[in-house]
Write a structure and sequence with these properties.
single chain; mainly alpha; hpI Integrase, Chain A; globular; about 300 residues; DNA polymerase, domain 1; 14 helices; three-stranded antiparallel beta sheet
Length: about 300
């Protein structure tokens, strides 16, 4: 807990000083921001989040859902989101964080929803974008297939070792947040893509070198988080997808497609590695929203 307080509150103190000294905001306005962000800090302590760098979009979404469950009005929740966006924008500008985890969250008057989920056709177009005539293309296609096929976080994907994948049994062993282990089934298409990569790509990338990592670069090293972010963005553009594509887009889509297909919420919770099922319930909001939109569009009495 002390680590959380020292890291988060230290960043918060710098931000409030920035608002006062450089932005010139009134004490009343700064006090309002401070109250919102201190409340979020208390939530972090309960979640045992130890570093500001560990705060992601999912964590902020669950916090906003908690505020909703505590009967805060949409207007109050929107104010909290504005406070969080400003704080994380400051951390991003200061190079403390690479990206603002609150930037893509929308909180309209009707309630909370996630950024757009990819359609199945969007996912297929994205996975088909890499050129499989090249070793890197085979690797990238396998990574995209596995990311979507198992609902992995990008940090989990790039850390996978050779021993993590069981091609015969069809599962991947993942170490998620807090070093918690889970086993996730992997579909046929992802398994085929991984086999293709292992047979035709990985030896060419490694040459005579050895590596424990499943996915490697031409230097024989593991793929970095930033490199994969750049890759998936490029493939999104090649696939001519109009939505902004991130690694988490595929994780969102994995969960939503499962729930829309009738999968049990507890099963999805286990596959995603969520400690709290309320986190998984975020995706039921997305599925319901899309069903409502489809009903309005296609039903004669919609």
């Amino acid at each position: 807990m002390k680590n959380t307080a020292s890291d988060y509150l230290q960043r918060l103190d710098r931000y409030l000083a920035f608002l006062l000294m450089e932005k010139g905001l009134s004490e009343k306005t700064i006090a309002a921001y401070s109250a919102d962000l201190v409340r979020f800090g208390l939530y972090l302590e309960k979640k045992k989040t130890t570093l500001v760098a560990d705060i992601d979009t999912r964590l902020i979404l669950t916090y906003l859902i908690q505020l909703r469950d505590q009967q805060l009005s949409p207007r109050s929740r929107a104010r909290h989101l504005v406070s969080l966006r400003g704080f994380f924008k400051f951390l991003t500008n200061e190079k403390i964080l690479q990206k603002n985890p609150a930037q893509q969250i929308d909180l309209p008057k009707t309630g909370l929803h996630l950024p757009d989920v990819l359609t199945v056709a969007d996912v297929e177009a994205l996975i088909d974008a890499p050129c499989r005539d090249k070793p890197e293309g085979l690797r990238d296609a396998a990574m995209l297939e596995l990311l979507y096929g198992a609902g992995l976080r990008v940090s989990e994907l790039i850390r996978l070792e050779m021993t993590a994948i069981n091609l015969e049994a069809g599962f991947v062993r993942v170490f998620g947040k807090g070093a918690k282990e889970r086993v996730v089934p992997v579909g046929r298409l992802a398994l085929d893509a991984i086999r293709d990569y292992l047979d035709r790509s990985r030896p060419m990338l490694l040459k005579s070198r050895a590596s424990v990592h499943l996915f490697v670069t031409r230097r024989g090293r593991a793929m970095t988080r930033q490199s994969f972010w750049n890759l998936i963005g490029r493939y999104g553009r090649l696939a001519k997808l109009r939505k902004k594509i991130t690694p988490h887009s595929l994780r969102h889509s994995f969960a939503t497609h499962l729930i829309e297909g009738g999968a049990d919420l507890r099963a999805v919770q286990m596959m995603l590695g969520h400690a709290d099922i309320s986190t998984t319930q975020i995706y039921t909001h997305v599925a319901h929203r899309q069903l409502v939109q489809a009903h309005k569009k296609y039903h004669p009495r919609g």
